Amino acid sequence: MSTVSQLSQTEELPFYEPQGDEVELFMHAYEHKLPVLIKGPTGCGKTRFISYMADKLGLPLYTVACHDDLSASDLVGRHLIGDGATVWSDGPLTRAVREGGICYLDEVVEARKDTTVVIHPLTDDRRILPIDRTGETLHAPDNFMLVVSYNPGYQNLLKGMKPSTRQRFLSMSFDYLLPEAEVEVLLNETSIEKAMAERLVVLANTLRELKDQDLEEGASTRLLVYTATLISTGFDPVKACRAGMIEPLSDDPDTVIGLMELVQAAFGSSEQE
Question: Keywords assigned by UniProt (predicted)?
């Protein structure tokens, strides 16, 4: 699945809370035509950051959600048959190289390893994309940038980025925001009250401490925003936490019960029970 987005001239930049010098680093990488790799846990702001930078630079953003069945043709393109003729249709990577823009491969390690080979010529000084099926060799324009991301916590022997591929990119690591910054995100993304936002962030950080013990992944900033949205519209806080933060973290009934005890300790019993 791929999407293309670009900010109109009348729209404001999306809200983004910097974690460090990532904005400056990204700008330097773009100016010097360097590819970027972003590492970090699920829902910590990687995709929001890329969207923010594309809008800041005034570039179209071609986002590809990588998965097990993603083929090289899904990225580069394929011949289609229609109206009695065969027509070549560019994939998102090819469109970005032809027209300029940021091509963002989200969770790149989910793609088949033979698929990621097609990006290699774009990550060195050649910056080319050979298209065997059309006989073309596209040279990336100055306003093309390749960005990939993945979650190191999901790596295993079968799914991981080869060192030879990692070393083709500048790399930056993302993590969950500091509490005060995460509160600011909730205040900007929802209409929740500050005191409630602070309680949610404390709860989220408590849940994150359980990662690798009872949970495979900590509560993401994205889940915090979902939960804050429910609460800000009048939904019961305890039930909002269950739907927005607890149930997405585990399918194990006993684990859910244990996590809900943390919620109830933070917010009390549900008013609607």
Answer: ATP-binding, Nucleotide-binding
